[in-house]
């Protein structure tokens, strides 16, 4: 690990409502542990789940997006601390942040990759919170390093993020990089918007045999939702491990205004949460991240609260990596 790309957890970020001590731990802030991943893991006393921040917006800047995503992990922690405790005995730790000093995106991605690999090898399930969607390249490489077998990627997103990294990687290039460098990797994108992806990207998707679901099919309607879930289940059957990545701009800006690229025609929580839960229920998910949360443009903490509820759903559904 390049230690200049890592910042240890800060306990003071975890606060919430004061409670009667006799009631036990009522909220997440009272349960959260601290895990400094620079230190050797104590194999006999490890948490089930680690929250790792990806406090990096360099990829978004290079992709001409709105700055602010580097503040996403801190804002998300403040919302997660307020969550009611329904952990059911699962141990969850804050593992600090991977950071991007001096715009060095490439070394930041390598540090993320190393961190993910070490967590998975230790039997800890990672949930990473970004940060730009360049998070995906380092995250995938960490999963690949720690696992054996075929990996499938499920990306909840309005964009393919299949651009060519002509002048270096950006938040718009990670899946092009992954698919170009790795044979046998599958990629399913859920929520793709035609208006946000030019024909060249649809052509790239076709050349890589990318499976995708248009946002118009990501509906609250039960039949549409069931059809998407069946697509996801069928996709996961082809792989040994699944990497799920959630770009918050896939949601409608009505519920997620605090993102790098907001859109009014994204999907809504009644579609997303049952679909995510179905993917997690396959038992194949090795790791997961949430990208493009931009608190600078949030309204009333709405997007931050949505991120916190996504994390709570993941934690409720999953406790150990599938390795």
From TrEMBL:
Q: Which InterPro entries match?
A: HutG (IPR005923), Ureohydrolase (IPR006035), Ureohydrolase_dom_sf (IPR023696)
**Hydrolase recorded as keyword:** yes
Give the GO terms filed under biological process for this record.
Answer: L-histidine catabolic process to glutamate and formamide; L-histidine catabolic process to glutamate and formate; putrescine biosynthetic process from arginine, via agmatine
Enumerate the cofactors the protein uses.
Mn(2+)
GO MF, any single term: agmatinase activity
Residues binding Mn(2+) 2: 157, 159, 247, 249
Q: In which pathway does it act?
A: Amino-acid degradation; L-histidine degradation into L-glutamate; L-glutamate from N-formimidoyl-L-glutamate (hydrolase route): step 1/1
PROSITE patterns xref list: ARGINASE_2 (PS51409)
Question: Which catalytic reaction applies to this protein?
Answer: N-formimidoyl-L-glutamate + H2O = formamide + L-glutamate
Q: Where does Mn(2+) 1 bind?
A: 133, 157, 161, 247
Specify whether Metal-binding is a keyword of the entry.
yes
- Cofactor note, please? Binds 2 manganese ions per subunit.
Keywords, alphabetical: Histidine metabolism, Hydrolase, Manganese, Metal-binding
What EC number(s) has UniProt assigned to this enzyme?
A: 3.5.3.8
Entry superkingdom = Bacteria
EC main group = hydrolase
State the family named in the UniProt similarity comment for this chain. Belongs to the arginase family.
Role this protein plays: Catalyzes the conversion of N-formimidoyl-L-glutamate to L-glutamate and formamide.
Q: Can you say what this protein is called?
A: Formimidoylglutamase
The scientific name of the source species is: Neolewinella agarilytica
